[in-house]
Amino acid sequence: MSRKKAKQQLVQKPAVKQPDNIIAQIESRTESWQGPVPHPAALEHYEKILPGMAERVLTMAEEEQEHRHLIEQETVKILDTGQNSARKTEQTGLVLAFLTVLALCGSAVLCAFIGHPSVALAFAGTTLLGIVQSFLRGRSDQEKK
């Protein structure tokens, strides 16, 4: 049959009448499962295939959870140790700064008593400037946070 005849036949055939109200029903079902243990249906299937498999899977999940808890506990201990170390370093810095200020002030007083007022002024001035600078720097650091 040629193409021309096929086209004519299609045109000549009457169209099939469709019903006015077409109702379609689409059903969709989505199921998801999340966690260390498979879906209960899958566990049941495993148990049918290999008896005792469900128990093995549950035991494995329990051991994995215990392992994760141990890792988290170790991580918390390490973080606590780091924070304690930072506090000790800060306290040591404060003590050393205080001792340095005392030594510089004592040097200024000593220089003033032995007759060197310009050196005493230099010791006292630099000490005072250092203290003011550290307070100002501490305030700007706190404001940034």
Task: Walk me through what this model shows.
With 145 residues, the protein is mainly alpha-helical. The chain has one domain. 75% of the residues lie in helices and 0% in strands. It is built from four helices and no strands. It has helices at residues 3-12, 40-49, 53-113, 117-144. Helix 2 packs across helix 3. It is elongated, with a radius of gyration of 42 Å.
What are its keywords?
145 residues, mainly alpha, disordered N terminus
By DSSP (H or I, 4+ residues per run), the number of helices equals 4
Largest sheet: none
Structural class: mainly alpha
* Beta-strand residue fraction: under 5%
Dominant shape? elongated
Give the number of domains.
Answer: 1
Q: Oligomeric state of the chains? A: single chain
What low-confidence regions span 5 or more consecutive residues with pLDDT below 50? Answer: 1-8
Topology:
Elements (H helix, E strand, L loop, with lengths): L2 H10 L27 H10 L3 H61 L3 H28 L1
In a nutshell, what does this entry contain?
The protein has 145 residues and is mostly helical.
